[in-house]
Structure formats: C-alpha cells, structure tokens
Design brief:
Elements (H helix, E strand, L loop, with lengths): L7 H29 L7 H25 L8 H24 L7 H9 L7 H8 L2 H14 L1 H14 L15 H15 L1 H4 L6 H6 L1 E2 L4 E2 L1 H6 L2 H16 L10 H25 L3 H5 L1 H12 L4 H9 L7 H23 L1
Antiparallel strand pairs: 1-2
Length: 343
C-alpha cells in the first residue's frame, strides 16, 4: 500500500469514486430544481422528511439487521461498533470545540451538529458498491452496518439536545425517534435472539416483509427502505432551494460554512489517512475493504439527516443549507482523492 499512488489503478479508483460521489449530488440537485421551480411546493418538504424519519429509514435499518447481521460469523462486531462510537464522539467533540469560536453567532449549534455527523450510510454504501466487486461489497456492507449503529441511534437524540435544547432522557422519548427505536429493537432481535430469528426465515411472513424465496424477490420492508437514500437526498436539495428562494443572500454564514468543510473534507480525512497508514496493526495493510470503509467514513460530507431533522422539526436553519451545498459540491473531488490514496 503506497502512500501516494500515481499508477493507473489509483486513477481508476479516483474515476470510480468521482462517479459514485456525483450520483448523490445529481439527486440533491433534482430536489433543488423541483422546489426552486415550485413544481413541488415548499410546504411538502416537512411531509417528505416525516416519511423518511418515521417510515423509510426505520425500514432500512430493520432490513439491514435482518439480512446482514450474524454475530456468530462476525465475532468482532462489537469492536467495529465501538469504533463507530469513538468516531462519532470524536467528531462531536471536535464540533463542540470548533463551534465555541463562534460564540454568540447564529448557526453555532448547527456547526456543532454538522461536524458531529458525516453521511455515514446514504453516501458510503453506494460508494462501496461502486468501488468493490460483489463479494467484497457484501462483506463491506455488513461492516458498515455495524460501524454506524451508534450513528443511527444517536443522531436524532443529539439533534434534539443540540438544536432543540431538549434536556434529560425519558424512555418514552424513543417512541418519538423511530430511527433510534428501530436500531435498538433490531439489535436485540437479530443480535441477542439471532438463533431464534433463524426459525422464521423460511416462513411466508418473512418472504412478504423481508424478502427471499426461490426468486429472491425483495420484501415490503426492503422496498420501503430502498426509498430512504433518494428521498433524504431530495430533502437536502429542497432545503437548499428553500433557503435560496431569496437569492444568494439566503445562504448565510458563508465563512462558517467554508470552515465546516475545511474540517469535514480536509482535516478529518487527513486524520483518517494517518490512522490507516500509521496505526500499529497489519489489518489495514492486508485488508483493502477495511481501508476503504474507514477512509470513506472520515472523508464523507455532512450527513443528509441533518437537513432531514431540521425540516422535520421546522428548525430555522442558518448554516446547514450553505454548508451542505458546499460540502456536496466539493466532495465530488475531495472524496475520490482520499479514496485513491488508500486503494
């Protein structure tokens, strides 16, 4: 694994990553265009966000657990899960420190939230699929799913605390946070009771809801979950369009938006690259899939769910739209660059 690859394979990796990154931006632009041209009214944005948060995202989480998670064949899943916890806590700490520099300014809490969470699943999963052969992708998808368990479980409660200033913890609060609730339930059902869940995998109910059978057709839950990525990305584009309806002046805090992306697309990926190259373990040297997965998590742009959260709860954004559109514009180049360095 060379430090600065300049051969044809590195260029191929860059081109493949560039194509995969561009897909997300194209979908976001479609959402921007639909709302900017008033083909879809701005009032529908909250409804689409609610569909993602309350239906399609929980379905995606549950389906991933059902078909991919097996603690017996993945005995070190807990280490990957802890790595995900460490990554999010590190980024939230970084976001807190960076946002303190903007004390008293509008959008300070948004900076904290934006730096705390990357596009851990919606962006990384299609990137893995584009960059890996099918056999390696199947393994990478399982690792990704375990790595972002804490991400899925924490992003909504943390948003409630940082942006909406909700304090304390109430177990009944989980009922209002479907992504968190279904992450916990899925972990219990397919982790703790994994052996028991095997009994129903050939049942008619499993084929209806999860999928499978002789023709391998998708189930209802998978069909719902597959809507999550495009709908959430459309919400991102729609949120940008809503802010931009007054023209370029709608993008406030441009300097803070640039600062977010310097951290998100340059400094954090550099830290990830240093971990991959200098961590004293042969795992990174011998496992291309692991290197790619870790690098993508560090290099990913801001989380789409931040825009979804703000739209769902009617939070008046000041920094999220500008930081998001800049992030997805720049990551088309930055992500392929970092990917090429580790492949």
């Amino acid at each position: 694994m060379s430090v600065f690859p300049l051969d044809a394979s590195a260029w191929s990796a860059f081109v493949a990553a560039f194509a995969a990154t561009s897909k997300v931006f194209v979908i976001a632009f479609a959402g921007f265009w639909l709302l900017h041209r008033r083909i879809i009214p701005f009032e529908t944005l909250a409804g689409i966000s609610a569909i993602v948060a309350n239906l399609t995202l929980p379905a995606l989480i549950f389906h991933r657990f059902a078909v991919q998670f097996d603690p017996q064949t993945f005995p070190l899943w807990w280490a990957m899960a802890l790595a995900g916890v460490a990554l999010q806590i590190f980024q939230l700490g970084l976001g807190f420190l960076a946002s303190r520099r903007h004390s008293g300014e509008a959008g300070r809490d948004e900076m904290w939230y934006l730096l705390g969470y990357q596009n851990a699943g919606f962006f990384v999963l299609p990137m893995l699929q584009a960059l890996l052969p099918q056999a390696q992708f199947d393994r990478a998808a399982v690792w990704l799913f375990v790595l972002i368990m804490f991400f899925n479980a924490s992003i909504w409660p943390v948003g409630m605390r940082i942006l909406l200033k909700k304090r304390g913890f109430d177990a009944s609060f989980l009922l209002k946070l479907p992504p968190t609730l279904w992450t916990i339930l899925s972990l219990v059902i397919f982790g703790v009771f994994h052996e028991q869940s095997l009994w129903v995998r050939d049942s008619v109910a499993w084929k209806i809801f999860i999928g499978g059978g002789e023709n391998g057709s998708p189930g209802a839950i998978q069909l719902l979950g597959d809507l999550t990525v495009p709908l959430a990305t459309l919400v991102l584009g729609g949120t940008i369009a809503k802010t931009a309806q007054t023209g370029f002046k709608g993008f406030t805090n441009k300097r803070a938006a640039l600062e977010v992306n310097v951290w998100k697309l340059l400094i954090l990926p550099a830290i990830g690259w240093a971990i991959i190259h200098f961590w004293p373990t042969p795992m990174f040297d011998n496992d291309r899939v692991l290197r790619l997965l870790i690098m993508l998590q560090f290099a990913a742009p801001v989380a789409v769910q931040v825009s979804v959260f703000c739209a769902q709860y009617g939070y008046k954004t000041r920094l999220v739209p500008a930081a998001s559109v800049l992030s997805y514009s720049l990551c088309v180049v930055t992500v392929p660059f970092w990917v090429a360095l580790v492949l």
